[in-house]
Design a protein that fits this description.
The chain is α/β, with parallel strands linked by helices and about 325 residues long. It has three domains: about 1-35, no CATH class; about 50-150 and about 285-305, Response regulator (Rossmann fold, 3-Layer(aba) Sandwich), CATH 3.40.50; about 150-280, Rossmann fold. Helices cover about 40% and strands about 20% of the residues. It has helices at about 5-10, 15-25, 30-45, 50-55, 70-85, 120-125, 150-165, 180-195, 215-220, 235-245, 280-295, and strands at about 55-60, 90-95, 110-115, 135, 145-150, 170-175, 205-210, 230, 255-260, 275, 305, 310. Strands 2-1-3-4-5-11 form a six-stranded parallel beta sheet. A six-stranded mixed beta sheet has the order 7-6-8-9-10-12, sandwiched between helices. The longest helix has 16 residues, at about 70-85. The chain is elongated.
Length: about 325
């Protein structure tokens, strides 16, 4: 029989309220005390009582304080994921990477990682010795875990081929971040499909990690005289439209544009943007299906599943001779 909160409190020399605060994350507890309580919980095989009533799915983010700073994709994904997990009758607990060691045995059935690449080492250290299935969404696998990710290279094939079919040969590429998995894969896919069609890839432009403004990147791009550009990332469409307007670049008369779908704004641009849609609803549905199978232990080996994006054709790409 597992230990209770009284045993942990007694062993650690703290109150039951302090132990409770560690597992509910409702108030700050000093780091040494928190680590002592979590260590004792693992040693005594303690499972928080609220887990007994309903199973918990943990979502791990870089920082709860920074969730409002998520770019378009991450914010839409987080909202949709929380809604679907709740609808599937699980409890949701959003945990910061630095508190990943709260995932003691039995606390959560599955941990869903929404971390950036630069948090992977921190995550791996925190997860050392903790036996819990991990699902990464749109990122590399963690600790031999499962992955559901967009087929980034296929996105570039779809976009470039659409532009080439409409007569474009000089096609520029913009990335929201060239250092993360999505940026690296999209750049590779762009170069592969351009060369495969006998076209020379143009220099690519990246907003991050330098944090360069879009107006500067587009002004630099104009020197290469492209007829079309692909702007990768849901965080870019609004700034892209604003910068093009300031620079008096007419879409699609001066430049044909493919951006990434933001259902709240993409169709309201003038003209409405042709977009790549990562289909977050489908991504979340596939994630829930995989989580349910993981919980039922139907997958003992890591699952890596790539999902296709869709091309939504609107009015921002013109046909040229």
């Amino acid at each position: 029989m597992g230990a209770d909160i009284n045993a942990i409190a007694k062993r650690c020399g703290v109150s039951k309220a302090t132990v409770s605060r560690v597992f509910t994350n409702r108030a700050r507890v000093s780091e040494p005390v928190r680590e002592s309580i979590l260590r004792m919980a693992r040693e005594l095989n303690y499972t928080p009582k609220r887990v007994i009533a309903r199973e918990v799915i943990a979502i791990v983010v870089d920082s709860i304080d920074k969730t409002e700073e998520f770019d378009g994709f991450h914010s839409m994904l987080l909202v949709a994921l929380v809604a679907e997990i709740t609808r599937s009758d699980f409890l949701v607990n959003i945990i910061e990477a630095r508190n990943a060691d709260m995932l003691v045995g039995g606390y959560a059935k599955v941990a869903v990682s929404l971390l950036n690449d630069n948090q992977f080492d921190c995550w791996k250290d925190k997860m050392s010795g903790i036996k819990i299935p991990i699902l990464s969404i749109n990122n590399d696998p963690i600790q031999g875990g499962h992955v559901i990710a967009t087929d980034y290279r296929d996105e570039m094939r779809m976009a470039v081929e659409h532009l080439v079919e409409r007569g474009h040969r000089r096609i520029a590429l913009f990335l929201d971040n060239e250092t993360v998995l999505a940026g690296r894969e999209r750049l590779t896919g762009y170069c592969e499909v351009m060369k495969g069609l006998g076209l020379e890839p143009l220099p690519h432009y990246s907003v991050y990690p330098e944090g360069r403004p879009m107006i500067e990147l587009i002004a630099t791009m104009q020197r290469t005289k492209p007829s079309a550009a692909i702007f990768c990332g849901e965080s870019l469409p609004a700034e892209t439209a604003y910068a093009l307007n300031l620079l008096n670049v007419k879409v699609p008369a001066d430049l044909s544009v493919i951006s990434f779908e933001r259902r709240d704004i993409s169709r309201w641009f003038s003209p409405p943007h042709t977009t790549i849609d990562q289909d977050i609803k489908n991504m979340v549905n596939e994630s829930i299906k995989l989580i349910l199978k993981i919980i039922k232990e139907q997958y003992t080996e890591p699952v890596i599943r790539k999902l296709k994006s869709k091309l939504i054709i609107r009015d921002s790409v013109k046909k040229i001779k």
